[in-house]
Amino acid sequence: MIIKPEVIRSLEREREICSLAIHHLEAKCKEFEERYRWTTEEFLQRFEDGSAGDDEDFFRWYAITQGLADWKATRNALEEVIVG
Hints:
Keywords: Coiled coil. The chain is mainly alpha-helical. The chain has 3 helices and no strands. The radius of gyration is 17 Å and the shape is elongated.
């Protein structure tokens, strides 16, 4: 199937939106990393094993990591279609 150039341009714009969202969420993770002096990977391990605690910030940080994973998956899927 051949994808029209107009569709490709639209997908490229969507990919750019994904990249902007990823950049924003990575910056939010960095703020939490600096505040708690954990990497996001360390935080996720602690959150998932229950040792991080129940601080509201941790639930926000976790939600951000989940959103980040979703945006990255979407961007990767778009890149597969765009590149072919």
